[in-house]
Design goal:
The protein is of the alpha/beta class. Helices cover about 40% and strands about 15% of the residues. The protein has a seven-stranded parallel beta sheet with strand order 3-2-1-6-4-7-5. The chain is elongated.
Length: about 250
């Protein structure tokens, strides 16, 4: 897709990793997947299964015999590597790589090496820049699909993808009004008073203030206020067979 970068997997070995890479690509809106000499050939039943349908719902796979052929139509290439290569190239983290790809005309790509040994130097030499992640220097090897996922997530974040429920307020009730919140406080404090909690009496104002300060920080919703008042009532009066009758 013009404008969105291609993901190129150089000599990938496991169909499962190809499928997982396709899946996370589609999660974050990328669809151009290019394979260079996949070890087990193509198509791959293992990749199809691992992709969870991504290979049939938008991700388009093209297979090439050489990296040079896979680069056709691309204008900017970034190679991923966890080790220095001694080459005079710009080195980006994921946010900077995304910004660089977005700021250039034409279609760019991110190149990932195979599972066994990553990218060969001759492949890195064909790229304009290097992408590396802030990994543990004592354990820097990422699974291929995970490495693709880190970049794809950054691309999705930069595109402002809201997610399935983003911005919808699903399951979130309106904030509690101050009068309802104060009503809950007073209900709670009345039952605490009845239970003899406020002792000695002269400390009651400080204890009430401390309770209210703690409760206010919870940013209550209207539903939460109703639920909590129901809990106060159940604790003070019981429910069902445990319910008590008391004179007010």
């Amino acid at each position: 897709m013009q404008g969105n970068p291609a993901i190129i997997l150089h000599a990938p070995q496991l169909g499962e990793n190809i499928g997982a890479a396709a899946r996370v690509m589609l999660n974050f809106g990328l669809t151009d997947l290019r394979l260079v000499s996949p070890r087990d050939g193509w198509p791959s039943a293992a990749a199809e299964a691992m992709s969870a349908g991504a290979l049939g719902q938008g991700v388009e796979v093209t297979v090439f015999d050489t990296l040079e052929a896979a680069m056709a139509g691309l204008t900017y290439m970034i190679a991923t590597t966890a080790r220095p290569r001694g080459m005079e190239k710009a080195v980006f983290g994921a946010p900077e790589a995304v910004a660089e790809l977005k700021g250039r005309a034409g279609q760019g790509a991110v190149l990932f090496g195979g599972e066994k040994s990553g990218l060969p130097n001759e492949a890195v030499a064909l790229c304009d820049a290097i992408l590396t992640y802030p990994v543990n220097p004592e354990f820097s090897s990422l699974n291929l699909a995970q490495a693709v996922g880190v970049f794809c997530h950054q691309w999705g974040a930069s595109a402002g993808l809201a997610g399935k429920f983003g911005g919808k307020g699903e399951g979130v009730d309106a904030p509690a009004t101050r009068e309802n919140l104060i009503g809950m406080f007073e209900h709670f404090e009345a039952e605490l008073e009845r239970a003899g909690y406020f002792y000695p009496p002269e400390k009651t104002p400080v204890m009430v203030t401390n309770l209210r300060n703690a409760l206010v920080r919870a940013q209550w919703t209207e539903q939460e206020v109703r639920t909590f008042r129901g809990a106060i009532k159940a604790l003070s009066l019981g429910r069902g067979k445990a319910r008590v009758v008391r004179e007010e």
